[in-house]
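Key result, reporting period 2: structure in, sequence out.
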């Protein structure tokens, strides 16, 4: 399939809109068709307002054109037609009958059905449609769920299917599993049955929600506990799935479990349902009474009998249904790992529990993870690895890969070793987020002691470390993903080259703490952009970008920095980029921006203050930023000196101290 093609999505449901958005994110033109032009246009208006956003950039909406389902002529030139209408057999069959007249010889046609047999959809269809037709089961919204289950039929062209799977991974950014034509396929069927089974077992065992989640979360390598996952998916959606599976699979081994206990069904019906873990307050549902209370402390035991019970139940279920849903145990494991963030699939866990061998195939080179590469030196703050071919890697350790002054010391030692023994260095994180930045607690402790010399020493040390990284004698590539804020974002700005995952959320957030970037972030941005107004907006906005594409548009990236199409390929591609850069000349020094008149900047900030859009202290913060930008020579050293001085002055101000204290105590910013 083409890099930039034409997609036609039939059905402006939330899933259909999400697929259209994902195609637009990939650079495709899209026609979104529904029963009327007005309905399709309304769906696109809602897409513009979607939160979290489904588009990497708002302007990508221009790539999607609404249309009327009565006009299928766009399908004649389409590379891919996606049927996403309601889960109704006759409706889908009639649509496919019409589509036979409008598909070209190279058009791919897929259905998003979840519970209907693909074979039944194809009855009486012509040979061309049959060989170019298969299922594509996305989890909604597709942008934020990487699993894509692809379901071939007996007549699907194998070469076409392979091409599509490659396209879906390399261009759309999904991870693909090829599964069998069985209701619910793999991820939906397995998780739904597993959830309702665990729910009933918990009630029978009189266990609390917090006990079950402690046993079914990080303890066994899952991102969150099963009830927390249910809250994320929505209990009403899970109930709808259970009912559909119960109808489609009357002989399912867990058929009698696919029901909701009366107490919870009543709570859903009378709208008293707030989730197992309500978003507001530190509360949890009491399964016995249907009321909400404070959670109790839990100390999970890997040998807990309930955990063994539910694992054995899940494995028995999978052992019975696996031949119906997938060709191998590995396929099931991948579907659950990629669909629900499980570190290990159920068959891997069962093999470990029983002490039996389980051969997991080696991933393709493009999907190699950090754990596949040998550790040269391991420390509490990070690890130094040899990636082969002369490329080294320094990876920041969780939790949150938080930076400290000691981390920077270790990072510089890694750089020195790379310069001595290697040809390039990759800097990355070992968790979903690159770095949460620096902890404010250290500075708050210094403020309470009145030890501002310690803060100044920290700023000088961080500035020196960042400058040293930016002037490395070997190529340094940052493989960045997830949340990267504050001083961590300043680190990213100083790395000589970047390769970002699409889901990278970058921001200079220091204003929320009453501070300003002081590790060279303002200097680096101003030198790079040459536009004081743009830098002022970025610093005072203090907002996180919603994607790597937005980070690029807002000026955080250089023209030479790159964005991965698939986040799972980020690390490997950064390694390849480092190899390529090792043969290229190192970048030349930047040119200092021209002097800027502070008057227009002050006038703009005063106007915002007069309109009530920024507070009095934020006006003071903007003046500090303006002083950095316009208060003297614009060479990087002078700009950094002014950053340091301005930040130290702010640390002494009571209003900034109130912001820091409030942020540390509540986790929420204070607008004073």
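The corresponding designed sequence is given below.
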């Amino acid at each position: 399939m083409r890099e930039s093609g034409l997609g036609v999505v039939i059905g402006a449901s939330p899933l259909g809109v999400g697929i259209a958005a994902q195609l637009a994110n990939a650079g495709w033109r899209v026609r979104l068709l529904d029963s009327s032009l007005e309905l399709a246009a309304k769906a696109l208006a809602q897409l513009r307002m979607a939160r979290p956003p489904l588009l990497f950039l708002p302007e990508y909406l221009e790539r999607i054109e609404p249309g009327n389902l009565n006009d299928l002529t766009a399908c004649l030139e389409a590379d891919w037609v996606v049927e996403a209408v309601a889960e109704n057999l006759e409706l889908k069959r009639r649509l496919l009958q019409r589509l036979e007249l409008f598909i070209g010889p190279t058009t791919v046609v897929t259905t998003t059905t979840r519970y209907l047999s693909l074979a039944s959809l194809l009855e009486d269809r012509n040979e061309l449609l049959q060989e170019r037709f298969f299922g594509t089961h996305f989890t909604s919204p597709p942008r934020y769920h990487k699993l894509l289950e692809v379901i071939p039929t007996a007549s699907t062209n194998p070469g076409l299917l392979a091409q599509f799977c490659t396209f879906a991974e390399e261009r759309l950014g999904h991870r693909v599993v090829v599964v069998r034509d069985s209701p619910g396929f793999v991820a939906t069927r397995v998780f739904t049955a597993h959830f309702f089974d665990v729910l009933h077992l918990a009630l029978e065992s009189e266990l609390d929600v917090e006990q079950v989640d402690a046993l079914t979360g990080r303890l066994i390598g899952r991102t969150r506990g099963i009830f927390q996952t249910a809250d994320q998916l929505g209990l009403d959606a899970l109930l709808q799935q259970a009912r559909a599976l119960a109808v489609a699979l009357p002989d399912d081994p867990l058929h009698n479990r696919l029901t909701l206990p009366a107490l919870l069904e009543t709570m859903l019906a009378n709208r008293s349902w707030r989730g197992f873990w309500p978003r507001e307050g530190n509360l949890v549902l009491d399964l016995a009474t249907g009321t909400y209370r404070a959670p109790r402390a839990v100390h999970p035991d890997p040998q807990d009998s309930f955990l063994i019970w539910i694992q054995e139940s899940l494995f028995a279920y999978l052992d019975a249904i696996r031949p119906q849903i997938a060709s191998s145990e590995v396929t099931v494991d991948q579907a659950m790992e990629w669909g629900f963030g499980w570190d290990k699939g159920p068959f891997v866990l069962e093999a470990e529990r029983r002490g039996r061998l389980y051969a997991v195939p080696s991933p393709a080179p493009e999907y190699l993870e950090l754990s596949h590469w040998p550790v040269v030196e391991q420390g509490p703050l990070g690890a130094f690895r040899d990636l082969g071919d002369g490329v080294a890697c320094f990876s920041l350790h969780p939790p949150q890969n938080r930076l400290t002054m000691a981390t920077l010391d270790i990072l510089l030692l890694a750089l020195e070793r790379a310069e001595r023994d290697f040809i390039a260095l990759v800097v990355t994180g070992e968790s979903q987020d690159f770095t949460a930045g620096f902890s404010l607690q250290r500075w708050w402790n210094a403020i309470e002691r009145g030890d501002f010399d310690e803060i100044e020493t920290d700023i000088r040390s961080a500035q020196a470390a960042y400058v040293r990284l930016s002037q490395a004698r070997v190529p340094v590539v940052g493989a960045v993903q997830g949340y990267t804020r504050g001083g961590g974002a300043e680190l990213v700005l100083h790395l000589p080259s970047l390769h970002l995952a699409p889901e990278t959320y970058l921001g200079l957030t220091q204003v929320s703490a009453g501070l300003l970037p002081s590790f060279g972030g303002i200097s680096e941005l101003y030198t790079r952009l040459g536009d004081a107004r743009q830098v002022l907006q970025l610093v005072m906005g203090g907002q996180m970008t919603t994607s790597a594409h937005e980070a690029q548009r807002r000026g955080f990236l250089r023209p030479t920095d790159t964005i991965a199409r698939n986040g799972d390929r980020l690390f490997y591609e950064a390694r390849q980029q480092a190899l390529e850069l090792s043969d290229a000349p190192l970048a030349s020094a930047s040119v200092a921006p021209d002097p800027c008149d502070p008057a227009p900047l002050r006038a703009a900030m005063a106007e915002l203050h007069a309109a009530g859009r920024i507070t009095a202290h934020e006006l003071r913060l903007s003046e500090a930023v303006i002083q950095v930008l316009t208060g003297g020579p614009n060479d990087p050293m002078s700009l950094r000196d002014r950053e340091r001085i301005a930040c130290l002055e702010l640390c002494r101000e009571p209003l900034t101290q109130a912001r820091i204290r409030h942020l540390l105590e509540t986790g929420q910013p204070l607008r004073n």
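The CA atoms of residues 180 and 294 lie 44 Å apart. The first helix runs from residue 14 to 25. This case is discussed further under Risks and Mitigation.
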